[in-house]
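note to self — DONT lose this again. spent like an hour looking for the file last time. sequence + predicted structure for the chain T wanted, 279 res
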Amino acid sequence: MLFRPLLALVLAFCLTFVAAPSSVSAAITDGAGDSDFVVGNERSNARFGNIVNTGRANDCPTIAAGSSGSISIGSGDTLSDICLQPTEVLVKVAPTKRKKADFAKTKIISPSNNTTIEQVFGDISGSGAFAEKGGIDFQLITVLAPNGEEVPFVFSAKDMQVDSNSSSISVGTEFKGTTRTPSYRTSNFLDPKSRALTTGVDYAQGLVALGGDDKELQTENVKRYIDGKGQITLSVDSVDAGSNEFAGTFVALQTADTDMGSKEARDLKISGVLYGRKG
């Protein structure tokens, strides 16, 4: 009767080869359609296996390029699923003897591709004025400047107030306005010398040797919660009137992290992909 375990092993081995082609076929079928998961509201139909470990969950949905039409908006309407995906971050570098202060390209080095703001929603009032109410409206991002400096910042759409001065969204529509940039650190965060806003020690360096009135030392020791103000422009270049979706690009101007007031704010220019829909 010793042949029974051997027979079972052989059958299991054969079944593996029989099932393999169908599994591969299913994978190919899924793979062939995985590019569609970012097309408008079809994104919700995506399978976990199509996007896991690909970084594509960081991508904004898209609509067909060149789509045109018009979406009417007015008081009482809402915009939802607004997505802002940064594709380029510029940081203003200090001036030199030969060059004026200007923006320079950086490399996004944040892990896990977590850079996109999405599912932002809000209300329309007046003639095309939009006020953000919630969503995944900020991301912590770090970029590498040309000089090797790492520049952290909060990419934010919090309290976004933009106006198009129009009663419809069509190709060429622009929403312009402001955003709020919260502090990169919270009040309980301890820096390397155990200093914070509401916890830790007040003075990690001796004041006697420096006379006790050094301004630079004070900015390092005394932490402050500082909100920044940003400017943003949303430019629409594609509209699907049938599904009430729109897409385009955005440009945001804001500041980088100041380590709770201990560093000068660096100016940033962030640009990328826009998506949203009415309702």
